[in-house]
Amino acid sequence: MSAVDIASHPATQALVNRHKLRWWEPIPWILAIGFFFLFPRHLGFGNEMLVMVLFALSLDLVLGYAGIVTLGHAAFFGIGAYTVGMLARHGIWTEPLSGLLIAAAVAAVFGLLSGFVLLRTTGLTLLMLTLCIMLLLEEVANLAQEWTGGYDGLDNVPIDPIFGRFEFNPLYPTTQYIYILCILFIGFLIVRTIVYSPFGESLTGIRENTLRMHAVGAPVRKRLVISYAISAAIAGVAGALWAQSNAYVNMSTLSLDRAATVLIILVLGGYGRLYGAFVGAVAYMVLSHYLAKLYPTAWQLGLGLMLMVIALFARNGIIGIFESLVARWRGKPAS
Amino acid sequence: MAGIVLGGLAAGMVLFIVSVGLSVTMGLMGFVNLAHGGFAMIGGYVIVLSMNRLGVPFVPAVILGFVLTAAFSVVMERLFYSKLYRAAELDQVLFSIGLAFVMIASVIIIIGPETQPLILPSWLRGQMDLGFTTYRTYSIFLIAVGGLIALGLWLGFERTRMGAQIRAAVDNRKMAESLGINIDRLFTITFAFGSGMAAIGGGLGAEFLGLDPQYTLKYLVFFLIVVAVGGLGRITGVFYAAMLIGVMDFVLKKYVPQGGTAFIYALTILILLVRPQGLFGRKDA
Description:
Shape of chain B: globular
Largest interface: A-B, 41 and 47 residues
Low-confidence stretches of chain B: none
Radius of gyration of chain A: 21 Å
Strand order of the largest sheet of chain B: 1-2
Number of helices of chain A: 15
Low-confidence stretches of chain A: none
Pfam families (chain A): BPD_transp_2
Radius of gyration of chain B: 18 Å
Helix content of chain A: 55-70%
Order of helices and strands of chain A: HHHHHHHHHHHHHHH
Shape of chain A: globular
Distance between the termini of chain B: 38 Å
GO molecular function, one term (chain A): branched-chain amino acid transmembrane transporter activity
Strand content of chain A: under 5%
Mean pLDDT of chain A: 90
Subcellular location (chain A): Cell membrane
Number of strands of chain A: 0
InterPro entries (chain A): ABC_transp_permease, LivM-like
Structural class of chain B: mainly alpha
Oligomer: heterodimer
Keywords (chain A): Cell membrane, Membrane, Transmembrane, Transmembrane helix
Number of helices of chain B: 12
């Protein structure tokens, strides 16, 4: 059998080019910048959306790529938010950028420790453990009133101007928007680099076939724990951004509501595909906004139906639907 | 002291009645059904509304709740759940959260968001003299009913052909299938039965847990804790876990109203870390 020219084989080319930027990748960023100029009165809404994109990206890393199903990812979001909030409110640290790093570090340490213990388990046990740890933290935040403000949370959290120049103004959150967009961009680059790295490929391998990854000698648990810690750090930054841009922290940052919301956002957009977080966050925020207007008391109806449809028929979310449409249009079966 | 134990046991019985179906569903079908609380809520509504608005007596109302909820769950199982048995855990989680949302919203639209009171018949009101202490009649009734249901389920599970089939399917589904057990039918019946039990639990517990559309998700974590701690598909495990959690929750709420729930979460985490398969689950299950 003659040797196949592996280097020029289409499959090799596809693998080599996987990480290259595609023509449409700048589009979400252009839209995000466009939003700033087109809707100056809705920047608060925009801030929330960008923060949730970053949060959903962090979840995508563990859920979409490593296949760790967690119901308690808001634990890290809340830890980041409370880290920034408590440090600022108790007069210890009010500088925003380094505050993000501290929040990331605290969340990463917590992710590392909890991941080390939790990721021995799978399935229902893992679901329950992630859920219980988040609920436990929520209770602790409620009980440690002196530090966390208990049920009411901490308001009027003081935040220094960025670089000593750009002030946060809750009424005109322009600084916040640019700040969050920049951090989101950095966070996105980090996640994108990770998922196309050999480390990221091995995470996908673990998701697809854990047994086989064990068999080829990959340190499965170590990689899962590391990805969990990185994801925790990014979720912590998202929480810290939320606390800084709103100038308050409350228990909603640690709640099952937030954990469910970020899961829904990611799945709505499409998990394991980087831009799912963007599409999902926009779709979710816009959808829930209009549903809440239509049915003030029963807005979950549309959302619930949508989740059922996605779970039954469109497991790859909105992006997945789009991909199969494109594939059909080109006359090729969806890959 | 006796009063606290009795109160806790009554709460534990309700937890058991609701959770046992969830345990079998998750154990037998491997389905993470986060809409289980929704079936309990719907059943509770059937029971309470048929009593309050149609004047159906208590016992027939409970039976009606069981039957209607079981019938509804058969439709759901055939239409949707059966399509997802082999799907990824995440898809099951999403589908069932979605279904729970739809249940909440539908009840709000059709009946309204307010709490529905369970008005007990006169023979269940007041106190009862037990000899060593007097206690609320309804709590004693709950303990008796829960105990009977537990005994009946245990006998049915251990002593009947159907029970043996379910146990076989929980332990090794492929083997059970190759022995000619009709898994599809078994699943449908079990699912209907589990949802029916949830309905009874929803109705009987409405007196102290309250009953409103949000019930669907409000107590879900507790049901899940009971199942996870008890071990999947183990009737006795779920029973002991429900008693443990029920009594502890009751005692803690009495003495440390602030930190009680935190303690239960912490205990659950500890138990699951030491025994990921639950206190009474088998290692290979």
